[in-house]
Design brief:
By secondary structure, the protein is of the alpha/beta class. Helices cover about 50% and strands about 10% of the residues. The structure holds zinc ion.
Amino acid sequence: MRAMLRSRAQWHHGTLLHGPEGTGLRRLGLHLAQGLLCRHPDDGLACGQCDACHLFLTGGHPDFRLVVRKYVEKTESSGEPRLRDEIIVDQVRELIDGFLYLTSHRQGAKVVMIYLAEEMNTATANALLKSLEEPPHATYFLLVSHQLRLLRPTVISRCRRVPAPQPTAEQAAAWLAAQGAADPPLLLAQAGGAPLKALTMLDAAYQAERTRFLNRLAEPRRLSVIGMGAEVDSGARAVKKARLQAWFDLLATWSYDLAACAAGAAPRYHPDFTPQLSRLAATVAPLSILRYHRALLRDRALLAHPLNPRLVAEKALFGYRQAVLSE
Ligand SMILES: [Zn+2]
C-alpha cells in the first residue's frame, strides 16, 4: 500500500479498494483521496497542513466528489427520511456533466470516490463505464467495496484491485484494549476479526442484548418465536431495523459456530458460549444447521429495507427451531 502511495504516477486512474466491513475502508479511502489532492504529500500520504488538506478536511475541496447513496427527497408519512437502496444513475450523470470534464479548480488532480461501489445499480454502473475506461486528464476514481461479488465484472475489469491492508490480530487486540475493551480477543472473535466492527460491539447494551439473545438460542425448545417477533416490532423504525440486523448477525454467527461444533471444530465467533454450543451440537443434524446458515446468509441481503421486521424475524427464528430440533 505504501509503495503504491509513493508515486502518483503509479496510481491507476481507476482503483478498487476492497475488504470486509468494519475494517475502516471508508476512512482509508478518504485518506487516500486526500493524499492525491494534497500539495505536499509525505510519502504519498496527506500532509494534513496544506490548503488543499484543509479544504478537504472541512468537506469543501472543489476537486473532490464523494458519491454515496442519497436520501429520497420527500420523507415518508412517518416523517423519517429514507435512504435509497442504490446509487442512482442521476448521480453519475451529475458527475459527468458538472465535474469530470470541467477544468480542475486548483490545477491539480480531481478525485471521485464511490462508496460503496456495489450499491451502483446496472444503469449507474453502465453510465460510469466510459469515464472509468477513458477518464479525463489527472482524474482518479477510487471505488470502495465490501462485496466484490456484487460488483459488475465490467467495472472490476477497468480498475486495479487493491485489497485493504489487514492489521494483525495482535495489533487489533492492542488497539481495542486502548479503546477500553476488557477482553479484546473475545470481542474480535465476535466481529469475525474486524476491528472497527468489534469496536461497535464494545457497547454494554449491545453485549447485554447479545448474551440474552444467545441464551435463548441455546434453549431452542423454550424459544418463543411469537414473543420475540413482538419484541423486534417495538420502538421506532430505526431501532427496529438495528435490532433485526443485530439478531440476524447473531443468528448467522451462532449457526456457523453450531455447525462448526457439530463437525468437531471450535466455535469461531462465540468462544465464551462453548459449553452451550457443544451441548446443542451433540443433538443437531450438521447438514440441517448448515443449510439453515446458508439460507440465512441469502436472506440477509434482503435486510436493507425489511418490509415487515416482525415477519422477517419470525421466519428466521422458526427456521432456526426447525433446523436444530429437526421438527
Ligand atoms: Zn496536504
